[in-house]
Amino acid sequence: MEWKEIEITDIDVFNKAFGNIRSQASEMSFANMFMWRKSYNSQFSIINNMLCMVANPRKYRPFAFCPIPLEDFNPEAFEDTVYKLKEYFDSRGWKLFFARVEERMVDNFKNCLKVDLEIKRMDAVSDYVYDTESLITLSGKKLSAKRNHINRFFREYGDFEYVELSKEYFSECERIFDEWCKDNDACVCEVPEECEKWACSQLFEYWDRIPGLKGALIKVNGRFEAFTIGEMLNDDTAVIHIEKGNADIHGIYALINREFVARTFPHTKYINREEDMGIEGLRKAKQSYHPSKMIWKYNIYPDFK
After folding, report:
1. 113 and 191 part of one domain
2. How many other CB atoms sit within 10 Å of the CB of residue 151?
3. Is 280 helix (H, G, I), strand (E, B) or coil?
4. How far apart are CA 233 and CA 147, in angstroms?
5. Residue 111 backbone class (left: φ over 0; alpha: ψ -120 to 50; beta: rest)
6. Domain range holding 251?
């Protein structure tokens, strides 16, 4: 097995694997795995024609992602790949377990492995998925608060300018991010490459080499106050990777959320707005949009005896 760090030139093999399984999980995009590669301290290998990714994060125990077939799923190949991953983990003095396993892929382990499995749902890393139409129209009693936020924005600020993200606006996004970090006492990382800000910078640096990335900014009274970045995750689902704004401007988040989806992804059925990371405020914010479903993810601990 040859293991290597994820590089921009690996985009084709990742896209082939992710496209093959048509996942709705936010991790299953090259942009996501690439931007967070330093935080995960990740490597990958192709074993039995399956994409295998291993993470060795600084603050957590090492884990493997679920092996992803590059072509048709083969149960025997899956089982053999798991055992090869066990050999690799054993050689590093680690105990193999799998994390962030999408619910529909749990059966691969149940059906292919002849060992006992401990399976634990991990709510903090599970994704919130919304109906696109709901995010655009904000109709119904449940979303009346979101409409009220936007209405208040128009009462207080009158209007806004929507600008599609391109290279000339990266510096504005970086300023917005810096101000967000200061206002939220965030982005203080022992290792800068583990911060969300650094992860976002990777999207800017490699913007032209990751096809499909889309973004937008909102300008209020002549000043950019919010930006967002997303992409198509599969043929009917988009994912929002980054969303930052000036919270002092009431309704700015509700506005950019609605406008970006309406102008960029109106053809989709679903929008994945990723996980809440176990942060109570983030959980409440994501729940307030009333997701149509959750993409539950699991840790799987095989008992090899």
Report:
1. no
2. 12
3. helix
4. 27
5. alpha
6. 127-295
Strands 237-245, 270-272: parallel, antiparallel or unpaired by DSSP? parallel
Angle at 218 between CA 277 and CA 225, to 5 degrees: 70
What string of DSSP letters covers 93-124? T----EEEEEGGGHHHHHHH--SEEEEEE-GG
Q: What is the identity of the amino acid at 222?
A: G
Residue 1 banded pLDDT, cuts 50, 70, 90: confident
Do 64 and 25 lie in one domain? The reply is yes
Write out the two tokens for 68. Answer: 């992803």
Match 């970006």 to its residue by tokens.
Answer: 260
- List, for residues 57-95, the tens digit of each pLDDT value: 998 999 999 999 999 999 999 999 999 999 999 999 999
142 and 43 within one domain: no
Residue 25 maps to which CATH number? Answer: 3.40.630.30
> What is the Cα–Cα distance from 140 to 42, expressed in whole angstroms?
43
